[in-house]
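Deliverable D4.2, example record:
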Amino acid sequence: MSVMSRVLHRAGAPQLPIAVRGDGCYVIDKEGKRYLDGSGGAVVSCLGHSHPRIREAIHQQVDRLAYTHASMFSTEPMEELASLLVGEASGELAKAYFVSGGSEATEAALMISRHFWAVQGGAHKRWFISRKSSYHGFTTGSLGVSGAPYRRQHYECILPPANLISRCFPYRDRPEGESLEMYGQRMADELETKIIDLGPENVVAFIAETVVGASLGAVAAPPGYFKRIRSICDRHDVLLILDEVLCGCGRTGTSYAFQQEQVRPDLVTIGKGLAAGYQPIGAVLIGHRVAQALAAGASALRHGFTYSGHATACAAALAVQQTLREEDLLPAVRRKGALLENILRQRLGARPHVGDIRGRGLLWGVELVQDRDSKEPFAPVYRLHERVQKAALRRGLLCYPMQGALDGYRGDHIQIAPPYIVSEEQIEDLARILEESIIDAVGQVHPGGRE
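Output generated by the structure prediction step:
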């Protein structure tokens, strides 16, 4: 007889399998079934599961000192981790501020950027600008700067007003005949219009995901987009916050995704892959201008969490980041990412209900449509993304389903983000099972039957 779960699960009362063990790129449930982790959970487990070096680092730190409050002590793993992360940014960053996850990292970035202006004589600055279809976290502040209507809909009454410009999403929004570069420049120029509308003296910062994750499914910006964004921010004295909670820490093939855009952010948020799921941790990486102003300011930063800079979490993250570098996994991400792209395009590129395949490194999105020519999505009531996920789960594959790529409510996509240690054989298995699952799910809802 099954026992009723006392856990408040996110989707009502689902009958979830009970995970009991990890083995490299696989999660194993209580019944002994193995699941190939094709999405790293929620794009987290970049080193897979049960990595011996990370486990040992956690054990050693707990044996020495599990926790102390960051206002009273610093710790060796926190200091070493900060030096490593800042050092990877080629001189663009100066400091690291540690929190417990991505949403907290966004909250901290908002607070730090606001504090920066307060000590710089810009106390009147109050507005943040972000993009439609963006997602920056589920705390009140981070959701307040998010442009994802599905996530906001029940909480609008308690959220700060969002100042949004258009997303930069070529597949859905670029007009026929407009070059990718011109489209990107036009979208970036909306930021200048919005800043002028609000008044540059009132704008704190612009925040954007360097590569958009869950809300759109691995959407990278056109060439030159972020360079234009940076120049607009500089011209109007507005900070640039880049959200790399999902796409940072090597996921796109470099330490930080912004390095591929050749821009200098003022603040960067990271999380997910920072400790690869072995401990909950996030961080804000802070540029020199902001760090210097905070150091020179008359008032201390009035922000912090109980578990900021948690010693055990920092030890886990340090071991993860050292492993990525010592095992030369960033070039592996680029190489395996190219293989994953090729195989996805071979298997899915001609499928009548696959509208787009997009991504970078080991972060890929597959958008599903009812009609390829018109890009018409399936009706939301079908919840096709969830049907694909369930079909994949039955076949032993974990993937990341989302809905809302078109307008926040319509449009289904699947996000693929396997661990960096994934093998070529596992990539083949991943693509094959995903193809089978899409065929299965479409066959359940499409008027014409199976593909």
